[in-house]
Specification:
Layout: E1 3-6, E2 9-12, E3 17-23, E4 32-38, E5 45-51, E6 57-59, E7 67-71, E8 77-82, E9 91-98, E10 113-114, E11 118-123
Parallel strand pairs: 2-11
Antiparallel strand pairs: 1-3, 3-8, 4-5, 4-9, 5-6, 7-8, 9-10, 9-11
Length: 124
């Protein structure tokens, strides 16, 4: 399984960015696609996840209302639309694939596959 994240960049507070995660076809067996982020000196934290079965979405409290996770028509691309960005959103953003149970969907170790990070920097 290969995951390729892209779309990061330098923006100002209040701006928007859309991150993309292109997954290889072999991800079909992975029920969940997720986005995590890691700021310097901090642990990796959950941002959003989408379940292929039913399209259920999950968000962190900080992402709720500002970020939207979705998937492309082909099903192998997952997007993270980030609006109203804040300086505290600055981090490396990672996409992940796996089949965690619902109670573990926010846990990084529950995901088997990871893409490389894409850096998002939000200036004040």
């Amino acid at each position: 399984v290969q995951l390729q994240a892209s779309g990061g960049g330098l923006v100002q507070a209040g701006d928007s960015l859309r991150l993309s995660c292109a997954a290889s076809a072999s991800t079909a067996s992975n029920r969940v696609m997720g986005w995590f982020r890691q700021a310097p000196g901090k642990e990796r934290e959950f941002v959003a996840a989408l379940r292929r079965d039913g399209g259920y979405t999950y968000y962190s409290e900080s992402a709720k209302g500002r970020f939207t996770i979705s998937r492309g028509n082909a099903g192998n691309t997952v997007y993270l639309q980030m609006d109203s960005l804040k300086p505290e959103d600055t981090a490396d953003y990672y996409c992940a694939a796996g089949s965690p149970i619902v109670s573990a969907i926010r846990t990084p170790t529950a995901y088997r596959y990871w893409g490389q990070g894409t850096l998002v920097t939000v200036s004040s």
